[in-house]
Amino acid sequence: MIGMSKIVKTIANISFPLVIIYGLYVIAHGHLTPGGGFQGGAVVASGCVLILVAHGSSWIFTKIKESHLSILESLGALGFISLALGGIFTGTMFFTNFLKGTNFLFGTIPTSGAANINTGGTIPLMNFAVGLKVIAGLFVIVLVMAYATSQKQEEEA
Amino acid sequence: MTRRDYTAVIFLTLVAMFLIFGALLMRPFGTPEEDAMDQYIIDNTQQETGANNGVTAVVFDYRGFDTLGEATVLFTAVAGVIMIFRRLKK
């Protein structure tokens, strides 16, 4: 049997969606509550690694390839850099918060105290980009390492 | 005791003295020497960036270039790991 026992697989399958939802919450509320793209991405990547440990890396490789995750990570990096370049194209500097103060996406400015989620300018979008990058990056590191070492063990046995 | 033991005791004492004097010379918690920058960020973050979370505002707005470097470090780490472990798995 590939992976761990049936008990571990069942518990991992139950707790996987909860971990993913919590991580996505931390990413999406990065400009309001403690957390952000890096922290939420680490949480989501930990959930993916939980599934990887429970089911075994060769089962994961039938579902997803590491090249797909590399593409996701590059998309996150490109989104981050293009959001930063948007500051130049709208007439000011690199990393200018060009969406702040407009009535477009995430544009409103909070007055005081608690704010709604539609604030922050480019900060939530940058959180999404960095979150995507961290999810794909951390997961592909663990996935490639686990797959390489598992092949080695099978050859030795 | 051999000469090596004496050396170890002397170095241990030096390190312990360094740490103890460092701990005695620390200023009390929450009273930085220079707090003009902290107060500026606390006062103006909400108006200047539109974000309520001051830490995220510093990371992604005031010091965005530093975050770009962090993302590049992560990208380089992923590229290096894939490059090393692709060889191992045929």
Walkthrough of the structure:
The complex is a heterodimer of chains A (157) and B (90). With 157 residues, chain A is mostly helical. Chain A has one domain (6-156). Helices cover 68% and strands 0% of the residues of chain A. Chain A contains 5 helices and no strands. Chain A has helices at 6-28, 37-55, 57-63, 66-89, 123-156. In chain A, α2 runs parallel beside α5 (123-156) and α3 packs across α5. The relative contact order of chain A is 0.17. Chain B has one domain (3-89). Helices cover 74% and strands 0% of the residues of chain B. Chain B has helices spanning 3-24, 36-49, 54-62, 64-85. At the A-B interface, α4 and α5 of A face α2, α3 and α4 of B.
Count of separate DSSP helical elements of chain B: 4
H/E element sequence of chain B: HHHH
Alpha-carbon distance between the two ends of chain B:
55 Å
Radius of gyration of chain B: 24 Å
Q: What is the largest interface, and how many residues per chain?
A: A-B, 47 and 30 residues
The low-confidence parts of chain A are: none
Fraction of helical residues of chain B = over 70%
| Unreliable residue runs of chain B | none
Mean pLDDT across all residues of chain B, rounded? 87
| Rg result of chain A | 19 Å
Overall SS class of chain B = mainly alpha
| Largest sheet: number of strands, sense, barrel closure of chain B | none
Name the features.
heterodimer; A: 157 residues; mainly alpha; 68% helix; B: 90 residues; 74% helix
Describe the secondary structure blueprint for this structure.
The complex is a heterodimer of chains A (157) and B (90).
Chain A: H1 6-28, H2 37-55, H3 57-63, H4 66-89, H5 123-156
Chain B: H1 3-24, H2 36-49, H3 54-62, H4 64-85
Helix pairs in contact in B: 2-3, 3-4
Q: Brief overview, please?
A:
With 157 residues, chain A is mostly helical. Chain A has helices at 6-28, 37-55, 57-63, 66-89, 123-156.
